Each structure stands twice: as structure tokens, then as C-alpha cells.
UniProtKB/TrEMBL annotation, chain A:
InterPro entries: BP-dependent_transpt_permease, MetI-like, MetI-like_sf, OppC_N. CDD domains: TM_PBP2 (cd06261). The chain crosses the membrane at residues 38-58, 108-133, 145-165, 223-249, 269-295. This is Glutathione transport system permease protein GsiD. Its main location: membrane. It is found in: Cell membrane. Keywords: Cell membrane, Membrane, Transmembrane, Transmembrane helix, Transport. GO terms for cellular component: plasma membrane. Belongs to the binding-protein-dependent transport system permease family.
Automatic annotation (TrEMBL), chain B:
This is Oligopeptide transport ATP-binding protein OppD. It is found in: Cell membrane. SUPFAM superfamilies: P-loop containing nucleoside triphosphate hydrolases (SSF52540). It is a peripheral membrane protein.
From TrEMBL, chain C:
It comes from Desulfosporosinus acididurans. Coiled coil: none annotated. GO terms for biological process: transmembrane transport. SUPFAM superfamilies: MetI-like. One of its GO terms (cellular component) is plasma membrane. The lineage of its organism: Bacteria, Bacillati, Bacillota, Clostridia, Eubacteriales. This is Dipeptide transport system permease protein DppB. The chain crosses the membrane at residues 9-30, 101-122, 134-162, 197-216, 255-276, 305-327. The gene is dppB. Pfam families: BPD_transp_1, BPD_transp_1_N.
Amino acid sequence: MEPKYSSNPDENLQAAEYVEKPESQLKAMWETLRQNKAAVAGLFIIGILAIIALTVWLSELMGKQILPYDPNYADMTKSFIKPNAQHWFGTDQLGRDMFSRILDGTKISLFVGVTAVAISLTIGVIFGAIAGYRGGKTDTVIMRLMDMMLAIPSILLAIAFMAALGKGLDKAIIAIGLVSIPEYARIVRGSILSVKENDYVHAAKIMGNKTSRIIYKHILPNVISVIVVRATLGVSTAVLDTAALGFLGLGVQPPFAEWGDMLGRARGFIFSAPYTLIFPGIAITITVLAFNLLGDGLRDALDPKSRIK
Amino acid sequence: MLLEVKNLTTEFKLKRGIVKAVDDISFTIDKGEILAIVGESGSGKSVTSLSIMGLLQKPGKVTGGQIFYKSQDLSTLSKKELQKLRGNQISMIFQEPMTSLNPVWRIKDQIMESIMLHMKLSKKDALARTIEILETVGIPSAAQRANDYPHQMSGGMRQRVMTAMALACNPELLIADEPTTALDVTIQAQILELLYRMREKFHMAVMLITHDLGVVSEAADRVIVMYCGKIMEEADVRTLFNNPMHPYTIGLLKSIPQIDNDSDERLYMIKGMVPNPLNMPKGCPFSDRCEQSMERCTQEMPQLQDIDGHKVRCFLHDAKEGGSAKQ
Amino acid sequence: MLRYIIKRLLMLIPVLLGVSIIVFLIMRVFSPDPAPIVLGQHATQQAVAAWRQVNGLNDPIYLQYYHYLTGALTGNLGTSYYTKLPVVKEIMSRFPATIELAIVAIILASFFGIVIGVISAVKKNSIFDNAGMFIALIGVSMPIFWLGILLIILFSGALHWLPSNGRINPLLEPAHITGFFLIDSLMAGNMDAFFDALRHLILPASALAMYSMAIITRMTRSSMLDTLQQDFIRTARAKGVPEGKVVRKHALRNGLIPIVTVIGLQLGSLLGGAVLTETVFSWPGIGAYTVECILKSDFPVVQGVVLLVATIYVLMNLIVDLIYAFLDPRIKYSKKEV
């Protein structure tokens, strides 16, 4: 092993500067990721889902009907048509085309999943970074709060938030975002604590670097890959939570087509029209699966030794 | 003859190619003999021992040759028959005393497991035997220490426990893979002394694997020097130390620090590095590091010559060339 | 050891205080007034005012919390806004159903998770491994409630093998002694009731177990792969221990240590999953009931349930740590490391 310190301060400075930049670390991850078939498959599915979501959304903005049928057009004379050439996935209790509704639902699930993660990520990273870097009482207070949130099952907490906030797309995003904050805070705090004790961070401190600079230049690059993995897996959790809230009738409300909501409303027809309950579930599972595949691949790319935590 | 290894070849199939970790080696061990196998890391000495024990892990595989134990070809034995031999007649001590013991088992249970498996003793008798063997290897207040977990013991104590475990069923052959490397010098001497004493007491043969020629000179009867999976030289210990023939052996001997040497000379080092196992030189594997290397050495593999019981693989001692170095 | 346990139990106090404050904030401070929800849209102003007075909602917020807290300390968690029954009674009448479901689920999840995980690790990269890992991947990707729906469609709808809702045929319901029907029916010697309760349990418990099983499978596999690489496994093989015993007695005993943590943590997530499973299978447990109470703004019940769940969570963490110390002799809890 090379000695980490030198009596020459210039060399110490260099040692302190010698940290992988975020970009190069991400680049290395990408290279390893490309070798991982499962992860590439996940990325491919996510790509397709994103294209579907964007196409549906853009055509909606332009007022064009690109789906085979209007996903929200109800026609009771056409209710419960079994899957056939016209209606690939059949029609639901209100005679709406299931295939169109499921494609339309892609946009909601991806949007809620990604934005909810963005919320928990931002708040969680800030909390975790402060707790980890400041330590002491600040750390204790923040982490105790996080522990308390973890002691309440996240679905109950989300339901309580929904009850307080009211139903709706934006509220679902906030509720789902809020309940995952502790996970990110814990990860970031843990990573910072482990990095903080490293010699090059000490060296940077001795050299009189500013705190914010140390966090940005030395600590963040080490934490970023862990966060990327967690966030990817977090999207799958968020998609599941969205569906769960929807299923309980608390989530995204009509006119939006949402997969969990579709399942919740079709529940009464479980024996008479089971196909109305099959396809939305498949859509959720595929979406969640894709993010899990990608997340697992990223984790392996990051460190083949660290598995499920 | 207790153990005979005949033309043993062990290969590791890797993605980037095949590594011949052990390349066509033959040797024997007699009853009660201590045979030392010396070499740098990567010379194939540990793989040799694992091949004999049948403990090679996945990419590794014995691809040629035979191993006879008491004239029985081990490759013809079933898994069960091998298990009966292992830990019973042939046992092994490993290099890492810190990690080679199961951390969640009391040491007495780890030793008793082997005794109950092979000697078919009752639990009570197995415990008595365990304490007896722990005393034999020099563990003080053995009856109490037997209840300890490995983490409660020092490295030297753990290696004694490993030794006790290996000796528990009175093996006829003990393979000791770098048993002293991870230990302090004083503890090293104690463990070696212990091995020597056990050999005397139980008349068991020892195959001692080491990179340390100092250890060899103290303990061994006969020495094999390995390099890149091949035997370079083999002789009884006195001959080898007094009259080394292979330039590699000479280099190894010169690099032992001498306490009685007052000169300010720097300690000798063999120049260069062990060749990449995926990219072996065509001729003698030592040719690019050898100070007496000749044109021929880089082109042809020298054969192992037997010169009055002293075996050497080097063109400098090629019998047909009259043993002359000036060709 | 005892001091460690006591210290950890004392830590319950701040956690419960904090959790109660969180719930209080969400439900009393940030939620809309429960009065119109409880009394209905058409309730008169006087009725609303009177109801608020009776339930102490006119007091300042801090006083409301203080009243709740002092009540809770004497074991009085308040009464449900709707049934007027004590919260403790409301919870206890439903809690055993949830616990029975969760325990059966965690047993299923642990058993199959460990078995599949160990086989996957021992036969790494074989067809067993690939199949096991595929199941685990699907398991973490499928919504619990959808799996429940699929099980109902298949086993109740198409095959008519198993019931799709409830805990037991009401005609067979045993006297409530423990509240666990499997135990109560055995105590009553009523085997018909036992098997009927078991039949009712299979589908919801399987649906609830799937996610945890997938997590445990993956954890077991990676932990076992790690352990099988260790030097002491080689030592065991060198002793002539048969391979099956090497895996079960040497590797699993060590590999189990991280697995236990995961199982303990899963019990927490099972209680969350129970909310959805109970809804799908009309299981008369605490999960579905809590959702109902949140939606009806029945604050005292929700607060009570959350405190109970948080207590279980903290106790599970403690139990996991104690099992940890039992499995790994290297860990000794001293009073310092709290």
C-alpha cells in the first residue's frame, strides 16, 4: 500500500484532490452496466414505457387522439366486452377500452413514480447530509425523527397523509414522496459518516477547504452512486405505492386512468369479468420489474459484493 | 510409500484462458517423513495440496495424472470414501488461523465433530479425546479453553486448535499449508516445534508447504522447490542447502537474511517478476529472471534430471551435456 | 444483558412519544375537521359544536395532546368516534386476526425464502438458481393486492378450491380464547373449525408472504454465497464433513445471521402489507379497519393502532438484536453500546 500522507503539503493537497469526479464514476458504472443483460433489459423496458408515456402525453397536449379509443369515453352498451380484435384487452364496467386506458395509465405511473422519488430524494439527501456532516445533536434529532417515521408502516403513513391532504394526483405524489424520506436520509448519512473519516477528507479539511466545498467535491461523488441505485429502486416502490393508494380508492382520481384505481374499481367483477383485473396488474408488474432490474444491475455495477440491504 | 503423486496436472479454466497451476508434477512421501514444498505465491504449492485433498473449488480441476494413497488411486474413490479419508487419515492445516475456524462454533464442537465423524466415539469420549488432544498441542487449561469461541483466542492459539483438529483422528499424513505464515516469529517456532514433536510421537508424515526456507531448514527431511507449477529441484534438506543446483534455488537461498553476516551488502533479491500464468514463456519459466539464462532456455523446456537422487530441471546440469555450464 | 434489554425498552418511550406526535399532527392539525364527517353533512351547527366540545376538540392543540397523553398513560386511549367503544377494545377484537395472518405469512416466507435461497447459492448459476432468482424478482415486483386478486381468480373462481374471503365459516367459529382461530379451534378440539380456518388462511397468507419471501430469498442467496467462500467452510470439508452437513451446519449457521435481521424487518413491512391483503380478502383484521378509520377521521382508533404497530416495530428490532447475539457469539451487548 502506498502511504497516504506525505510531509509535503502539496502532495497532501493532491491526495485530497484525487477523488473520482461524479461524471467519471457514473461513466464507469455505465460501462459495467452495459455488460449486465438484465439491467439492459430493464433499461429497454423503461425506454419503451417512457416513449409510450411521452407520446400519449404530447398527443393529448396537441388535442389529438393517438390511442385506439378515448380512454375515458364511457359507453355502457359496450361494457364487459371480452378481449377481441377490436378491444385487445376488452372493455371495463363502463365500456371503456382497457388497452387504451392501460397505455394512458403509463404516463401517470411514471410521472408519479419519478416525481415522488425526486421529492423524497431531495429532502432525504438534505436531511441525511446535514445529519451526517454536522453530527452531534443535529444528527440525533434528525435521525430520531426518521426512525419514528420508519416505525409506522409506510402505507399507513401515506394513507394518513392522503386523508389529511385530500385525494388527487399532486397529493398522492407528496404523500408517496414524504414516506420514503427516511430511507434516503439514512443512506446518505451512513455514506457520509464512512467517507468523513477517510484520510483525503481529513486532508482536505486540514488544507482549509470550505465545508460546502468538501461536501460537493469529496463526499458527494462517493455517495452519488449509492443514491442512484436507491433512487432507481425507489421508483419501483413509488409505482407500487401509487397503485396501492389507487387500489384503496385514495390515489389519483378519475378522469385520469391509473392502474391501481382501475383494479380497485373492477374488484367487484372478480368472478364475472376477471380479465379486467389481469391487464392493469401486468402493467404495474412490468413497470416495477423494469426498475428493479435496472436498480439491481446498477448495484452490481457499483459493487458486485454489496447485495440486498 | 504413503503417498505417490504421479504426473499431476491441475488447471483453472478462466474466461481469459486456461491456467496450468500445477503442471505435470510427481513426488512421493514416505511414512513419517517431512517433505517441504517451497515456492513463491502462485507457484502451485497450495493447489497441489488442495488437489490431493480433493478440495479444489470450481474453476480448478485435476486434468491429468494420479494420486495414490497407500497404493490406492484417489480418483477411483467415491465421494463418501474420500470423505472418510479426509480429516481422518489425511488431514490439513491451513494458512489463515484467524478465518479457518468457524466463528459461531465452540472450538470443542469443531474438534469433536471430526472425532465423532471418523472415530465413531460417543459424545463423552469424543470430548475427553478433544481435551486430551488440546493438551497435547499445548493449550493451557484445555478443559476450559475448549468452551471458547475462536474469537476469544489469539492467532497462535487458534493455529494450535487447527493443529489439534487435524491431529484429532491420528492421521497418517498431515498437509500443513503455510501453517506459520500468519504468525509472529516466536509463535512460528512453537508451531514448528509442535509439528516436529507430533511427527515423532505419532510417526505421521507431513507435507509442509511454505515459502520460507528458514522454516524448511528447521523442520524438513526432504525439499521440493516449485516454480510456476513445475518442480525445479528436489533433494534431501542437507544436500539442497549445501549444494543447491538450480539458479532459482540458489537465488532463494541467497535472499535469506543472515544474522552472522556483518557486511553492509544489501539483501539479495531475485530480479523481475513471476511470469503471467496466462502468458507463460515457451522455454524454462524462470529463464527471464535467471542470471545464467542461455539462448536455449527461452526456447526449450528443460527436463527434470535425476543426478544421484538430487533432481533438478535446468540445462546447466543437463546430463547429456556433461553437466557443463559453458555451452 | 438484562441492562441492555431494559435500556432498549426505555427507548420505546421517546419513539412512542414521537410517533404519537406525528399522528397527532397529521390527523388533528393538518386534517380537516372530523365533525362533519362523523356527524354527516346535514348535522346542525349546535350538534357539531356539542360534539366538538364532548371530544375536546375546542381546546388548544397542545392541551388536546396533553389530555390524550395523560389518558394514554393510564391505559385509556379514548373511544371511537363512531362506535363509542374504547379504542383498546376495538383494536383487540381485530388484532389477533392480523397477527395470525402475519405469523403464518412470515413462517411461509422464511421457510420458502431460506430453502430457495440456499439451493440457489449452493447450485449457483444452475437452472434452480435462475428459476429461484426469477421468482424472487417477480415477487418483489408484483403488487401484493394484485397477487391476492390473481390467487382468488385462480383458486376460488376457476378451481373452487379455497375460499376467497373471511377467516372462517361463521358456523364453525370457535370460542375466542386467544383470538387465533387456529389455536382456539385446537383448544376446543374442533378439527373441522381448524381446517376451515386453515383453508381460509392459505390464500391471504400466501399473498402477504410473497414479497417478504422474495426479499428473504435474495438475502439468503447472497449471504450463503458469501459464507460458502469462507475459509472455515474449506476447513469443514477438509475434516471430511459431508457436503450436506457443511451447508446446513457450518454455512447456514453463519449465513443465517444477516437473514434474521431481514426476517425481523420484514415483520414490520408485513403489517403494512396486511392493510392491502385484508382489503382484498375481506379479512376482519386491524389493517383494513385502520384504513377505514383514517378515511372516516376516527382519530382515537388510528392513533391507538399506530402506537401499537410502532411498539411492535421497536420490540421486533430488539428481538432481532437479541437473536443476533445468540447466533453470533462475537457480539456481546454491553450497556455502553446503546
